[in-house]
Amino acid sequence: MDVLPDFTILRPTTIDEAVAARTQHPDARLLGGGTDLVVNIRRGIEAPPVLIEMMAIDSLRSISTADDELAVGASVRLSELADHEDVLSNYPVVAQAAHSIAGPTHREMGTVGGNICLDTRCIFYNQSEWWRTANRHCLKTTGDMCHVAPKSRGVCFATFSGDLAPAFLVLDAEVDLMGPEGMRTLPLKELYTGYAKQDGSTGDGRNYLSLRAGEIVTAVRAKRIPGHKSAYDKIRIRRSIEYPVAGVAVALRRDESILKDLRIAFTGTNPRPVPLDGTDALCGGALDETVLEALDDLVRDQVMAMKTTFTPGHYRRRVANVLARRLVTHLFDAA
Asked: For residue range 24-37, what is the model confidence (pLDDT) as tens digits?
């Protein structure tokens, strides 16, 4: 095991103290369960001089399901979210996504905020220091080229792999942020920026969150949508601990034989989670092969999987397609 570099740990007990600490130490990193950050530090991927440990702030550790709204604090453990009775009953897509993350010990330590803000990664980034040095550092660390897409002209194509984001996205979630200028709320999909569709949006695999200087995520909130069925599924190489080759969240509503509403979001394929655009056009009729083929077209156009893991990009897109078809069909039949 590599030796950890020196760092200082601060332990605020209020959100104001945490914001003040982050303002005072702009190079600090927030520490929840440490299941991703500590591994990155051990591998030499990053060496923050200060860690701000967030688990002593009680207001970040609550789950509320009042008034048909799910509000989850950023420091809630993944296992707590996965096992919460109201979440299991009324927000199954969220509970299933939380339960699918890594293994049981990781879920006992990992937090909601950590997974929502999970670092992007690729086959050239998620390696030891000596491996990355031997293969020339990539754009996301100290290099000057994205090895995944050498002609990207300075754009990093590291992939977002968090499981909770797509689950919350199909429930029209919002995220609460606190910073030196106070609190603000924005739609969860606006938290993520990237070049997933080359649509002119700012950011990439390095700058994948739209957080302002000193801001921290305090909570994520989603509305309960009556009449909807929802679920989450993913494929990974090693079932116990691996990041998804592709993951998909689906929420839909069926009225008799008619598909009335359809929401789909992906993870593990692009530099940001992908809420699938254009699904409204698939609604209004039966879920037949014509609709599923149109779904295939949407996935093919918007899921831009690169060779960011040990599987090729076209395989990851195909996995995403199969997962979406399978889960939409399953939920429609069960509705």
From this structure: 999 999 999 999 99
**How large a percentage of the chain has pLDDT more than 90?**
67
Residues in the chain: 335
Give the separation between CA 43 and CA 38, rounded to whole angstroms: 9
User: How many Å apart are CA 109 and CA 60, to the nearest integer?
Assistant: 15
328 Cβ partners below 8 Å, 6+ apart? Answer: 250, 252, 262, 264, 287, 292, 295
Q: Supply 21's token pair.
A: 């600490």
Residues ≥6 apart with Cβ < 8 Å to 246 = 234, 235, 266, 267, 268, 269, 303, 305, 316, 317, 319, 320, 323
pTM of the model: 0.92
Residue 293 confidence (pLDDT): 97
Place of tokens 């909601």: 112
Per the structure block, which two tokens stand in for 169?
A: 């996205």
Instruction: For residue 291, count CB atoms less than 10 angstroms from its CB and return exposed for 0-12, middle for 13-18, buried for 19 or more.
Output: buried
* Count of C-beta atoms within a 10 Å radius of residue 235: 18
Per-residue pLDDT reduced to its tens digit, 46-88: 899 999 999 999 999 999 999 899 999 999 999 999 999 999 9
Edge-to-edge strand ranges of the sheet holding 63-64? 63-64, 69-73, 216-223, 174-179, 182-187
